[in-house]
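Listing S7. Sequence submitted for prediction.
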Amino acid sequence: MHPDTRKYHADFSLAERKICTLLAKEIDAELPDAENKIWHAHPVWFLDGNPIVGYSRLKSCVRLLFWSGRSFATKGLSGKSKFKDAEVRYTDVSQVDTELLRRWLAESREIQWDYKNIVKRKGRLVRLK
């Protein structure tokens, strides 16, 4: 786990820390070539400079976000924004289905929308893969 991501977890409750540690471990294992850094104050993993997956602590839960998740075939994510992102929220580590998470992570490698260049394209997303 990246030291900045570990530092991000430092002030969390034990329940939140367990969720985030499991998520980081699974993401690192499934996307070993992804760059992990704190971006907009949250841990995010990038492939070729494109954000793929990240999570953040909200008041009542930990939110796992896939930037291209609404294009995934595997069910279980929800999304309502004008972009292609989709999320799942957890309040306890027991809610994290690691097999489902691994399927989403596999899809995140294959299905990507170009968020890296969204500003250059004036908000228009283009599918990369």
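Caption to Listing S7: primary sequence and predicted structure tokens for the chain studied. The longest helix spans residues 14-30. The first strand starts at residue 35 and ends at 39.
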